């Protein structure tokens, strides 16, 4: 009996329900990863995430090999590749951990149908979210659209299960199926190689994820609630890319945080925000393309100013905190969460550029961009998404800098000319006060259109 384990955004050995179930069966286990950039609706990874994926797969392959197995790599539409590999390997069963995007669920359903028609057992497991999206419902049976009652409902559920132990052995077959060469996938940049900053900032892989969690709980979590909004403080967990690629499970994060004996409520609520984003995507698969709140379809976006978009992308807006954040993003593949909100608000509400352009740029440049959190958070800032505050929530980047970077440590690192008083500072693209009023006027049009329809 041979079991195939199809890895996706769960590139780890510990707390991997599909792998654990496979190891409980008799016979060898084949570990498979499929790079699927062809299935309808499946979104191809951005450049920074592709870099991370390459190194995460390297790390996983080494760990599987150390335990006697082999990680098989294949490229192509998963609905074709997974049954083909299962058939070629003579697999009796195929297991995987669930995904929650609409296109991914369709692919998984197709794979399951094909396998079962061929007489191969196919089963999926809960390994990526603490609470399955269909289990947390309002009193009327619908899904939550505001975070606080959503998270309250989650916390009223039985506590998340304990994480599963890491296997000591992954017994592979005597002759594993042929595997693609990872380097041939071209996931890392070469001409030019722009990933130097990513290499300095990050270490992908399961072991690095565990170290990051341990260091955070030992060194930073006590200051998390007080200083998490200060971009220069260094008190955030930096776990988001590890969670995005499943190098560590939310169950492991939850239980290690709770058992640390520290005050972790604020930190765990951020894990809850991640859950909220995925629950929203599950119920609204078009999250990256369409306004969650349909009344924002009437928002009067002006014609795209491509120069303004490019200057924003390059960190040349003439606004210190915005430029610092965008340069940090380009250099490291990440950006402090408070600054993410500021730069997003500036793009949408001061430059009056559709949130989808910003979402696309973050998708390409963030190592932690996933199909739920990235569009979910952009829509939250734009005012078109779940849990949105009134339309007049506009982050003033100068006020935010004074409050959260008063000593100019963050700006001084990423945009030092603003601190040194360089005479060659870029001219501000727009006047903050006037552009804020323009945004407010536009949002009033949305309200008016909504009232007319009502």
Automatic annotation (TrEMBL):
One of its GO terms (molecular function) is deoxyribodipyrimidine photo-lyase activity. Its EC number is 4.1.99.3. It comes from the Bacteria. FAD binds at residues 224, 236-240, 267, 368-370. Residues 158-183 are annotated as: Disordered. The record marks 301, 355, 378 as: Electron transfer via tryptophanyl radical. InterPro entries: Crypto/Photolyase_FAD-like_sf, Crypto/Photolyase_N_sf, Cryptochr/Photolyase_FAD-bd, Cryptochrome/DNA_photolyase_1, DNA_photolyase_N, Rossmann-like_a/b/a_fold. The keyword Transcription regulation does not apply. GO terms for biological process: response to light stimulus. Keywords: Chromophore, FAD, Flavoprotein, Lyase. Binds 1 FAD per subunit. PROSITE patterns: PHR_CRY_ALPHA_BETA. Its cofactor is FAD. Residues 1-130 form the Photolyase/cryptochrome alpha/beta domain. Pfam families: DNA_photolyase (PF00875), FAD_binding_7 (PF03441). The keyword Flavoprotein applies. Belongs to the DNA photolyase family. This is Deoxyribodipyrimidine photo-lyase.
């Amino acid at each position: 009996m041979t079991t195939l384990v199809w890895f996706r955004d769960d590139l780890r050995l510990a707390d991997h329900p599909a792998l654990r179930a496979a190891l409980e069966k008799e016979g060898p286990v084949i570990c498979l990863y499929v790079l699927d950039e062809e299935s309808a609706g499946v979104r191809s990874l951005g450049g920074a995430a592709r870099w991370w994926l390459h190194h995460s797969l390297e790390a996983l392959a080494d760990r599987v090999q150390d335990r006697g197995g082999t990680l098989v790599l294949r490229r192509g539409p998963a609905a074709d590749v997974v049954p083909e590999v299962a058939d070629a390997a003579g697999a009796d069963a195929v297991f995987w951990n669930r995904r929650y995007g609409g296109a991914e669920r369709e692919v998984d359903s197709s794979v399951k149908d094909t396998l079962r028609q061929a007489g191969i057992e196919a089963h999926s497991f809960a390994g990526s979210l603490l609470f399955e999206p269909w289990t947390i419902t309002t009193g009327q049976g619908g899904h939550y659209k505001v975070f606080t009652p959503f998270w309250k409902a989650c916390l009223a559920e039985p506590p998340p299960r304990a994480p599963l132990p890491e296997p000591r052995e992954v017994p592979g077959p005597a002759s594993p199926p042929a595997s693609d060469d990872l380097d041939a996938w071209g996931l890392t940049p070469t001409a030019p190689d722009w990933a130097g900053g990513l290499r300095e900032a990050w270490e992908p892989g399961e072991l690095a994820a565990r170290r990051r969690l341990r260091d955070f709980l030992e060194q930073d979590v006590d200051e998390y609630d007080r200083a998490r909004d200060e971009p220069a403080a260094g008190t955030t967990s930096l776990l988001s890319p590890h969670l995005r690629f499943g190098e560590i499970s939310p169950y492991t994060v939850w239980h290690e945080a709770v058992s640390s004996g520290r005050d972790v409520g604020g930190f765990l609520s951020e894990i809850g925000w991640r859950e909220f984003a995925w629950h929203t995507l599950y119920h609204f698969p078009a999250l990256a393309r369409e306004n969650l709140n349909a009344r924002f379809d009437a928002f009067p976006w002006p014609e795209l100013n491509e120069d303004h978009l490019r200057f924003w992308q390059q960190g040349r807006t003439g606004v210190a905190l915005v430029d610092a954040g965008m340069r940090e993003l380009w250099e490291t593949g990440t950006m402090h969460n408070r600054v993410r909100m500021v730069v997003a608000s500036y793009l949408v509400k001061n430059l009056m550029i559709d949130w989808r352009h910003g979402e696309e740029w973050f998708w390409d440049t963030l190592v932690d961009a996933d199909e739920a959190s990235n569009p979910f958070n952009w829509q939250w800032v734009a005012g078109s998404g779940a849990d949105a505050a009134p339309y007049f929530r506009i982050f003033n980047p100068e006020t935010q800098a004074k409050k959260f970077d008063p000593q100019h440590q963050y700006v001084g690192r990423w945009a030092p000319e603003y601190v040194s008083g360089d005479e060659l500072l870029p001219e501000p693209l727009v006047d903050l006060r006037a552009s804020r009023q323009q945004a407010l006027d536009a949002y009033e049009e949305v309200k008016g259109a909504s009232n007319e329809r009502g």
